[in-house]
Design goal:
The chain has 346 residues and is α+β, with helices and mostly antiparallel strands. The chain is 27% helix and 18% strand.
Length: 346
């Protein structure tokens, strides 16, 4: 087939381009090389791979297996742990609408939010995104909570290691993001994701021409995101979000690696020197699982232009904003109002 049409390119990944991303080895003793590779990636794509991060492949496989066990439960069981106002728990298919200008429905994916565990009687539990997590019954999936809590802890250590390299790439002290008001008390959120397989019924096969997506085009909200995926293709990125028309490239899964991308807060901090990158997920009929780990600073952290990223010729482009305030609004803009579920429950 010569000169495939746009529709054909969208439907068949074989005709689509793939993004070539830098790979950062967290076990490398050559920190300057890691900084150089990361800086180039942040200036070019806003996405990169991280390998040798310290989380074993055996444990990663276990987390994916446990995720599948949950999503295989009947919808009646999953709705018992529907997400609450603190964004903890289950999100049904179509719950999230990331690109309202181009989507006819919400995202054709289901998910599960797990945040930093804070007891109900703790003062911090009053804050948005903090409080006790919502867990499925231990009788349903043995050891599920323990597996997810362990992954949450280990992924945070990986995120902190990546943040240290980002700090050096921005000409800051390596421990800049380790401060208590930043990643010392983070809003770190683990999200299990499942894209259903099957035929074109119910939007399982994405069609951008018709406004149907596994996940609509968006940039992430926070500092960085660590994404672990299975081997099913689906993630696409757009390096230039201001382009018209936009050009999309697939990001190939890499066994044992995290796909890391920059969030909007880092774009604000760096005064657009480092850009958060638009990305989306196209479902091709294959079942797909991924695990996203969103890393944001503390609620009270003031996100404002870094001294190393501004000058007389390049003044700050964004006003300062508190992390908690910013995140609350972004989640409100993209998720279904919880009251709509109550109306449909008997």
């Amino acid at each position: 087939m010569e000169n495939p049409s746009r529709d054909t390119v969208e439907a068949f990944p074989a005709f689509s381009s793939f993004s070539v991303l830098n790979c950062i080895d967290l076990s490398s003793p050559d920190i300057q090389n890691s900084v150089s590779l990361l800086k180039q990636a942040c200036l070019d794509a806003g996405f990169f791979y991280v390998v040798n991060h310290g989380i074993s492949q055996e444990f990663m496989d276990e987390v994916f297996a446990q995720s599948k066990l949950f999503f295989d439960l009947p919808i009646s069981e999953k709705m018992k742990v529907l997400r609450n106002e603190k964004h903890r728990g289950y999100t049904p298919v179509l719950d999230e609408l990331l690109d309202p200008d181009n989507q006819v429905n919400g995202d054709y994916k289901e998910g599960y939010y797990i945040g930093v565990e804070v007891p109900e009687d703790d003062f911090g539990a009053q804050k948005p995104f903090y409080g006790p997590n919502v867990w499925p019954s231990a009788d349903l999936i043995l050891g599920w909570r323990q597996t997810m809590e362990k992954y949450h802890r280990e992924a945070l250590e990986v995120a902190k290691a990546v943040a240290r390299i980002i700090a050096l790439a921005l000409d800051l002290d390596g421990d800049f993001f380790d401060k208590p008001e930043m990643l010392g008390e983070p809003i770190a959120t683990l999200r299990l994701l499942h894209y259903e397989g099957g035929n074109q019924i119910k939007g399982r096969v994405s069609n951008p021409v018709k406004g149907i997506y596994g996940a609509g085009a968006h940039s992430d909200y926070g500092l960085i995101t660590l994404l672990a995926t299975d081997d099913v293709l689906g993630l696409q990125i757009c390096k230039d979000k201001d382009a018209n028309p936009r050009s999309w490239e697939y990001v190939a899964p890499m066994k044992g690696a995290f796909i890391v991308n920059l969030g909007d807060m880092l774009e604000r901090w760096s005064n657009c020197i480092f850009r958060s990158t638009l990305h989306r997920v196209l479902g091709n009929g294959q079942e797909r699982y991924s695990i996203a780990y969103f890393v944001e600073p503390s609620h009270e952290c003031l996100v404002e232009c870094l001294p190393s990223c501004k000058s007389e010729k390049n003044p700050p482009k964004f006003p300062p904003v508190k992390c908690g305030t910013y995140l609350t609004q972004r989640y409100k803009d993209t998720h279904t109002d919880l009251s709509s579920y109550q109306k449909h429950q008997i």
